[in-house]
Amino acid sequence: MTITIYRARRILTMNPARPEATHVAVRDGRILGAGTLAELQGWGAHRLDERFADRVLMPGFVEGHSHLLEGTQWRFVYVGYFDREDPDGRVWPGARSIDAVVARLAEAARALPAPDAPLVAWGFDPIYFGGRRCERGDLDRVSDTRPVAVLHASMHIINANSPALARAGLLRADIDHPGVPLGADGLPTGELKGPDAMGALAPKVGFDRSVLAGDAQGLRAFARLCVRKGVTTATDLASPLPENAVAMMLEVTGEPDFPTRIVPLLRLQSQPVPDAIARVVALKARSTDRLRLGRLKAVLDGSIQGFSARLRWPGYFNGAPNGLWYLAPEQLQAAYVEALAHGVQVHTHTNGDEATEAALDALQAALARHPARDHRFTLQHCQLADAAQFRRIRALGACVNLFANHHFYWGDQHYQSTVGPERAERMNACATALASGVPLAIHSDAPVTPLGPLFTAWCAIERRTASGRVLGHAERIDRAAALRAITLGAAYTLGLDGEIGSIEAGKQADFAILADDPLEIAADRIREVRVDGVVQGGRVFLAADL
Amino acid sequence: MDAAAPLPVTIVGGYLGAGKTTLVNHLLRHPDGRRIAVLVNDFGDIAIDADLIDARDGDLIALAGGCVCCSFGSDLLGALERLAELPAPPERLLIETSGVALPGALARTLTLAPRARAAAIVVLADAETLEARLDDRYVGDTVRAQLAEADLVLLNKADLAGPAGIARSRLRLAALAPRARASPCVRAAVPAELVFGIDADGVATRAAPDDRPPFGGPRPAPASHAASAWFASISLELAPRVDVARLAAVLTAPAHGVLRAKGLLRDIDGTPVALQVVGARAEIVASGHADPDRGRLVCIGARGALDGAALRAAIAAAVRTA
Ligand SMILES: [Zn+2]
To answer: pTM above the 0.90 mark?
Structure first.
């Protein structure tokens, strides 16, 4: 029953009744209260911990849309354009040209023992290389005997070299697939676009489903990244959650020094809806403090930059045909009905505004059958929703988790080719969501973009693209709103706002430890705020000690 | 069948509720001696009679008689590899797509698999609701795209749609899927040969050429949902040598009501060939089966639409023989 009172330079509580404090008292991993030392001493005998005396504490950040792959894929080589920190704190400098990518791959290849062991890399983004496409000849420069496969940052394309194509049986002239462009010689150029084409190669080079779904090593790496970014609760959105994966997660998150609360969602795919709901209900009962099971994710359409999102009229700016349904709207409605009947929360991936509209129709119909006052169904990404849709989202009691980071990485492409200037500026309309009274979270979709809620907040505040353009001044939100979105806002979408997301009596002792004050630093520098680590469930985890 | 030859695949598509699973269940109960494999998105709705199941191993169910049923989830190519590694690999493969998948896209994905090829795309449509689906604000374009790439469209639930409904569906189809050949059916009860193609035995066992109008004259009225109520076949004897390309053109033309055809014959230059027709798609491959004295041809069509006399006349008029 030891009470620890932490003194901090400043505690930003996100509790409007008591927005700031200097001290926070913790017992049994939970918060007794935040206030002055004098106020907190009333709880009785305590230990005063001064180690955060020159630090700023915030509620531990909540990442409402990430994937364990963010931890798993560091076993492969990072070749992204931007600098990126790995789970061990090493910052990998961006590879700014195809030559730089090839050089890094060649160096990594030299470290591999077997001459035919595949070399896999990720984070590749040739859109920054001036329209020059990567072809298999480029990667043959790394090795013309060893399979080399490079996953794009968007996760929608793989580039492969000739040995990798040969190993997958794809180095032939009779392939007729839109995701496999062919060169003048009739053979694949090495670019494999979309899940089908990628799926023909990925397992052959060791980038298979078990890696995507995560393993113990990847889960621990993911949690180390969370500590470095101030995240104390993070989602895995989503996986098929087979029994062995659940057992692994229960074991690893149960390790005494595991620093993160993980919220894995079950992905609704081809299994019958009642089976999926029954599985979610059964999993929910097995939740622990650090593994929160019992939510369902549905994916309704594809991605905007992959032109597979479902858009309403007038469709894609470059004239591309409309995207794909990954689930029929009526299947989604059936899932909603069943979920509401069993008290299961559903998070639905909608990228295009037509998918959003269909999800809202499905929700409206399902609610008519099973009225639910506090369902918190959440639209994930919901990138192209317009003002009328946000009003409807509000009316139906739903939440959104918008993809704020997207602007920085792909905003210029959206402006130029996918949806054009006007709709690019309204993408991820945080201000409209808030003005409409819609509960708002913002996310990284890590590893699609790097985990880092302060960066995500910066994206929502500034709305800058990689080229520096401000994409939609009117949709910028202020820093208080952005900081709320990465704490209480995200917690609300998970139904955990009574437990986490703010520093107040009764809640989990989850704090982000910051070396800079996000309210004092210039708003356009919030992404530079340094994170020392976290307190999670009353346990201190410093990045420096990982 | 040549072990190295790619496995011919029939893709069965169609929107939710069109009867894909009913068709799969029907075929698994009537495999007609073929060792077939069925790949489904999920076992969810597949109702395999328990007494048919030999063994079950995760996502693979082995059925009596050597047929298998396998769920592929999101990994079609992996499932194809698992099938190829079975002790007795299947002779025919049927892939049932999800209700929003585009069967044409799946056919293109099969070009990524070294040992399978799309042989036919069969798309089911619920004839009663087809028009509403085609005009649906969300899925209309998906349903249209599914049908546009079909070789055969099965207008299922024809009993519910009635002749007028079938006629309206045909009109819509003619506009949006001009390549597809359509036929009504009930409860997806269709001859297995229509889906998988007619094999050499199927040609040989139709002993006597049958050029009587198969749908004319009194017949015992079969139950209205039976395949025989909706489909008919005819068997023709041809000259020893036939211009196969011209023959294929006649059979693939919409006028004579041919949905499926198989010929074992000699081309005009004497080469023994097999001609396989599904809708507007014809395939001519070298074959050792052709009888030197005569060509044999079997055609399947919708009862009432397949016109043996007209077909015979068209062949006589257009196809050079020797
Ligand atoms: Zn995601």
So the answer is: yes
